[in-house]
Amino acid sequence: MPHVVTQSCCADASCAHACPVNCIHPTPDEPDFGLSDMVYVDPSSCVDCGACVTACPVGAISAHTRLLPGELPFIELNAAYHREASGPRPLQAPVPSIPRLERAGRASVVVVGAGPAALYTAAELVKNEQVDVTVLERLDVPHGLARFGISPDHTRTRRIRGQLDRILDHPRVTLRTGVEVGRDVSLDDLRAEHHAVVLATGATLPRRLAVPGADLPQVTTAFELVTWWNGHPEAVRPVLESERAVVVGAGNVALDVARMLTASPEVLRRAELSSTARQVLAESSVRHVDVVARGTAMDAAFTTPELVGLVALEHVVVRVDGLEERPAGLTGLAEQRWNLLAQLAARPEGGERTITLRFGQTPVEVVGDGRVAGVRVRAADDTVRALPAGLVVAAIGQVAHEPVEHSAGRVLAPESGTAEPGLYCVGWLKRGGRGFIGSNRACARETTRSVLDDVNALARTVA
Ligand SMILES: Cc1cc2nc3c(=O)[nH]c(=O)nc-3n(C[C@H](O)[C@H](O)[C@H](O)COP(=O)(O)OP(=O)(O)OC[C@H]3O[C@@H](n4cnc5c(N)ncnc54)[C@H](O)[C@@H]3O)c2cc1C
Ligand code: SF4
Ligand code: SF4
Known about the structure:
The chain has 463 residues and is α/β, with parallel strands linked by helices. It is 29% helix and 20% strand.
């Protein structure tokens, strides 16, 4: 009987390399790795050895007999991926190699930031015994958005921090917290003192709504809400006084916000929250959340595994409004997604706590006189209607405070477009605010390769 990958998968591919029969895909060398919602076990070749269960840092894999009722759709999702996948595969997932340092002596690398991308980079670098890594983090604690982003009710996914801590335990990785590069130490000084500096400062500037009324005080961003309930020291306590909220955007973070705003006392009890956040959310008046998306349900940015999670919620009625016609010729994963959406669209209205996913709706104005009263949305046929709300949350992504251009992780000078010697980038700073935690691992490998290739090239020149 096969093993099955479930919702908390963050696509770091640890399991793919542990599997003795190479039945977990996509692997990092395959073209859809990084685009896929998660990885999937091929039920026809899984030999049930359980090696992937031990390898997975977030407990995302179970024998199919151990799945919870709400996880059963993952059996079909895993199988559907492999029905569509084609071509012969190697007996073992290829293990990516990293270059070795060619010269004698030590190399010192500074990584700026201590989020997942920084720590995966540190892990790749210290595979080379001559490399020492110092990680500088502006906050007092490491892990970046693995600590302050992942939803408190996704307790399994949050276990990824255990894996990040093991990287920090490495004897040649030194973490210095409370050090902000640009304030406490200059980038120029770091570049002068080390062989390489890798910027891993993320994309933490939330995009804001750009419609009339968006400056009203009850209009906020998902980033501000999520970082607050995850205990970020700079986040401001929200006011949750209204019964209805509108979340604009349809990515996984929009769904995280909708779930947490409608969480029952039991869900809050099990979630990983500070006592203050738990109390504020327990006392919140919000009961109904409209998630508003411009595009179609099939094109929405949230992943199908997150949709499975929504369908399984028991304390809140989740519905879909504005589902498009069933596209022709649906098969495999797309068909599974459609089936879940159609199931939600068929649900009756009503419920003490509700989340309504509304597709094909473009917000045109936040209305209210000094205080938010609702959001006016325009449909494809140009009809406009008002959704009542006392809180509006923009969940439309983040950008970097100081974006950089790069080539394979080498930071390019803005004027000349040539690589800045010894300066690199990784993670959300490099790729923009998209992708899972695990996606940063392949990204870190690319940047590490550039760092080590350049150190080798420099040594050859000097010699
Ligand atoms: C709300 C939210 C929820 C998410 N949930 C999930 C999820 O459930 N599963 C999943 O797989 N992915 C999730 N992600 C995506 C995941 O968080 C990112 O892929 C990942 O955090 C990006 O890593 P990073 O290291 O590039 O950036 P970050 O995690 O943002 O880390 C950047 C670090 O750099 C530090 N820093 C910034 N400037 C400086 C400076 N000048 N000096 C020193 N340090 C500095 C910051 O304090 C921070 O610690 C979520 C993202 C968000 C926004
Ligand atoms: S149980 Fe064994 S064979 Fe099956 S997917 Fe996991 S590692 Fe591969
Ligand atoms: S989180 Fe990593 S190890 Fe776990 S199932 Fe996903 S890719 Fe595999």
